[in-house]
Amino acid sequence: MTTTQGTSAKAAGGASRLLRYLVMPVFLGVVCLALYLYVSTQQLDSIERRILTADFLFARVIEHIQLAVVSTLIVVVLAVTTGILLTRPGTRRVTPFIIGLANIGQAVPSIGLLVLFAIVWDFGFWPAIVALVAYSFLSILRNTMVGLQQVDRSTIEAARGMGMTKMAVLFRIELPLAVPIILAGIRTALIINVGTATLAAFVDAGGLGTVIDRGIRLGRDSVLIVGSVLTGVLALSIDWLAGVAEDILRPKGL
Amino acid sequence: MIRLENLSKVFPGQDEPAVDDLSMDIYEGEIVVLVGPSGCGKTTTMKMINRLIEPSSGRIFLQGEDVTRVNSDNLRRRIGYVIQQIGLFPHMTIADNIATVPKMLGWDKERTSGRIDELLETVGIDRSYRDRYPKELSGGQRQRIGVARAMAADPPVLLMDEPFGAIDPITRDRLQDEFLRLQREIKKTIVFVTHDIDEAVKMGDRIAILKQQSKIAQYDTPENILTDPADDFVRNFIGTGASIKRLSLSRISEIETTDWPVARLSDSHDEVREKMRSSGRDHVLVLDEQEKPGRWVGKDEVKYDTPLEESGRPAVAVVEATASLYKTLDTMITSYKGSAIVVDEEGRYKGVVDFDTVLEATSAMHSSEREETAQDLQTEGGGR
């Protein structure tokens, strides 16, 4: 009885999830189509024609994805490791200090952080990456710590009581059980980075921000609209991908 | 089997030791229950045996080997561990949960898999549960898996910290019975922690009643603790009703059943009447073809126009021979005529007990114990 209910509930959940998965791509496809139709009905002058080419836009999208993905990968490695270290016994004293530092990273306005790094270091890709890492560090750090702390103490005690080493408990029990919360943090960080990467154009790091910037500076509305809409579409696509990844990577049985 | 020598534990930042100079021997194949008020250090004591808590001083011997300084992870793989919250790994299947220790010990897949099937059968859970996750199980089933997981690598010793504490009373009673039946087969050395004296009496071959700082107030068999508490602390801890609790220690099979006239459904009405007359009783118990108790039939209820299977009233107050006197008395009180029918495991009739038989048996037990105690006092020179 319970099993049939369980399976049918699961099947229903699967069907509704599939529907949910389909809604976003269809919506984004419609938006892109509308954008294309809008641009093709416009009378474009030479400046607009130079910017609104597939090659130019595609290169900016790639730059944008590179900024977001590279910064997120770096911040995942750094923040998850820090989160693990800060939840071990013996690091209690440094925890408030590190959290405070991460807080500063997020509290400073992102454009300020980007420009600051550009001034003291250099313009270009890597300074922008460092700024993005500093900006999104806290969300993953906090989620990693909360994720590890919410693991039931009795589960850990049972594992230790059966003779698992501390390392085995961390990698086989604690981290898998913290995965859903850590993934949520990574998704947040990714979204923050996709959004903030738009500002990287101001420090010469490319991305879709360049298109928006040109649209404003040259006073071409069509360019401005294309840049803005593409940024939105990219952000939503990446968020959608992250959501799917979250569902797939979540351990079964939770 | 396990020997604790002058074991003490002082937690950092505390003046008073949580466990103070505890020495005790735990014998092979026995269930030893550590029981005491909360905060008496019983759990700390148990966790020092597998060194989840490292003792501040003293030594621990397991099977004659000093394990106070050996690698604690390896030590724990030799000792089964069951806790109240069970602590199943929610992200692993039942099979993977049970396979935890065998995997660490490097068993091959075939051996582990065979062992999982064997254990599931032992704890009475269907093999189809192998690939389910803990959240799909009921509390009682999880507890069984917890026990199976602890026994996976067949450790000689099991530590159990209030294993049935978080389960509803009815399921708890059943799990306790199941576990005792299992223990009769596996004969592990078990250290069992509880705060419930009734559970201690039921489960323990030996009970250690602990005071603050794990000082042993009395370490003895349940019978001796109930009949002869060492001091006021033990007496208070047992509480009222020690005699009633004693009844749960004796099995109905240990006392003699009353002779009672028995008839069969195949007997004629005259034969039934004759049996009743010759025995001098006013009731006869009628058994069916499988020797199972069918009906109580009274003197005036044997009528030629009523078949035997419809005469009298159904025999309902039935207990198995392995039932405790406590349960038997309980059954009797609610029964017709104040007697209970004893049957064997297959439900076949073995005899009848009534209040008088139970009373006689218990008073006989008391007087024989009083003599034993008197002898003990003489031989030990009056000291205990």
Descriptive report:
The complex is a heterodimer of chains A (254) and B (384). Chain A is mainly alpha-helical and 254 residues long. Helix content of chain A is 81%, strand content 0%. Chain A is built from ten helices and no strands. Chain A has helices spanning 2-41, 46-51, 54-86, 95-107, 110-120, 125-149, 153-161, 166-196, 209-217, 221-249. In chain A, helix 3 (54-86) packs across helix 6 and helix 8 runs antiparallel to helix 10. The model of chain A is unreliable at 1-7 (pLDDT under 50). With 384 residues, chain B is an alpha/beta fold. In chain B, strands 6-7-8-3-9-10 form a six-stranded mixed β-sheet, sandwiched between helices. Chain B has a four-stranded antiparallel β-sheet with strand order 2-1-4-5, with helices on one face. A four-stranded mixed β-sheet of chain B has the order 11-12-13-14, covered by helices on one side. The longest helix of chain B is centred in the last third of the chain and has 25 residues, at 355-379. The relative contact order of chain B is 0.10. The model of chain B has no long low-confidence stretch (mean pLDDT 86). Chain A binds chain B through residues 6, 152, 154-165, 168, 173, 176-177, 251-254, and chain B through 50, 52, 73-78, 81, 83-93, 100-101, 104, 133-136, 146, 149-150, 159.
